[in-house]
Amino acid sequence: MDRSLARSLAWRAATSWASQIVSWASFLIVARLLAPSDFGIAAMALVFLPHLRYLGEVGIPTAVLTFRDMTDDQLAQLNTVGLAFTLGCFGIAVALAHPLAAFFRIPKLAPATIVACLALIPQGFRNVSEGLLNKDMRFGLLSWFEAIRSIIGAGSTLALAYFGYGYWALILGNLIATIVRSIMIFVARPHGFAIPRLESIGKELRFGGHVLVSLFAWSSYERLDNVTAGRVLGQAALGFYAMAWNLANSPLEKVTSLVTTIIPTYFAAVQRDSAALRRYLRTLTESLALATFPATIGLALVARELIPVALGNRWRDAIFPLEVLAVYTAFRSIVALLPKVLNSVGNARFVMWNDLRALIILPTAFFIGSHWGIGGIAFGWVLAYPLVAVPLYWKTFTTIGMTTGEYVRSLRPALDATIVMSVAVLLLKWKAPLGHSLVLRLIVEVATGSAAYVATLLLLHRGRVTALLQMVRGSRRKAS
Which end of the chain is more exposed for a tag (fewer CB within 10 A), N or C? Predict the structure, then answer.
């Protein structure tokens, strides 16, 4: 299991970064071929898609992972439910397309929204198939499917943009990529359909409903800080805040997504073994912290040099919210594991109610913080998010029998090294003359922080770091 997990993460990392390079290169070219208004129309056309996609899934892939003893007939019934929901979601998109176009006063937005939401229909055919592939731990295959999807999407968008299709290039590129991935998943693990019977799949549907509500709440409060900044403080403030948010989250986005998309399968596989769940949570928390703490806290430490050097002096107002948000994202990177543990053991209801509480707590904090500008909104995350995280910690530790000391010990290597790194960089800032070039200061600070971090790990926690590296190397040798 350990080798399989490490190998799965390695596969996902390799294919994800390779496809991301292709996507970035394509995007830079497409950005030169299309007008800003084309990107604006495409963004508006896709505004419904994330929420409707969650509604169309009805939590079915997660239910397939969690309820591991379902019969083929029950899976076929869930397949029918998923297809019915995605068709219904597409109907909702069609009904809302013209009101959306009228609201923005852009008539051509209606057909663009309808075409964009066609991506919901192929999703209905793959819900159970994707859940089964995850349950079977076919992550190498899924990683290739994701890489192919990204490359085809980037290539289609670039070709359509080159031939003058404008905003349709962005919409159709995403649609083509979604259709191709759905076909590959269904062909790799096909499953039939059956007439749903509530008495047969009622428990699984209730669980899926809890997952669905949780996803809705999470995707909503994740965006309400931007809504608050734009509505209360204006477009310019929103621009600075959005830039700070994107920069603060960029160091952990790939790392966290690699883990949170794969580990639910492993948690579900050992859902009745509390000792195994504790061990996985310790190891993954330690690994995540070692990868994300230096990147996020380091970003906060060098933000005053990085922003002017990388973006120019006109973005200086993004420095303070970036410093605050980078501290929050370090904490969020390890908390992201807890809902996965709880869902794997059937506690999706608790996660749902906690996310609904967050939907009240966090927007309130954002609004109160907006009285102090975008920095106050950023502090809303730092001050209010612990109220969301503490119940997750309590429920997780109670469920799997983990102690606080056991969890904190898994964080010690990253915490010790990050503290030493922070002291080293802050002392350098204090002692270094202000007249030096910002580029030179940035390079020296990054080098100093990196050296302090690595040296602390080697001096104080060499055994733990060596053990983690040996596990990764062992999985690579087995894969090769």
Answer: C
Contact between 83 and 75 under an 8 Å Cβ cutoff? The reply is no
- pTM as predicted: 0.74
Burial annotation 151-187 (CB, 10 A radius, 16+ → b, else e): bbbbbbbbebbeeebbbbbbbbbbbbbbbbbbebbbe
- Within 8 A by CB and 6+ apart from 80, the residues are 193, 194, 195, 196
Q: Are the C-beta atoms of residues 340 and 277 closer than 8 Å to each other? A: no
- What is the C-alpha separation between 105 and 22, in angstroms, rounded? 35
Q: Residue 140: exposed, middle, or buried by beta-carbon count in 10 A (0-12, 13-18, 19+)?
A: middle
d(CA 232, CA 237): 9
Unique residue bearing structure tokens 């790194």 = 421
Q: How far is CA 296 from CA 85, 333, 347, 426, in A?
A: 39, 10, 30, 15
**Which residues, including other chains, have CB under 8 Å from residue 79's CB and lie 6 or more apart?**
127, 128, 191, 192, 193, 194
The band of 480, judged by pLDDT with boundaries at 50, 70 and 90, is very low
What are the pLDDT digits (tens) for 131-179?
Answer: 888 888 787 788 788 888 888 888 898 898 888 888 898 889 989 998 9
- Percent of the chain at pLDDT > 90 equals 24
The whole-angstrom separation of Cα 82 and Cα 204 is: 12
Cα dist from 288 to 78, 148, 253, 294, 473, whole Å: 34, 27, 11, 11, 17
Q: How confident is the model at residue 8 (pLDDT cuts 50, 70, 90)?
A: low
pLDDT tens figures, 80-125: 988 888 899 899 989 988 888 887 677 888 898 899 889 888 888 8
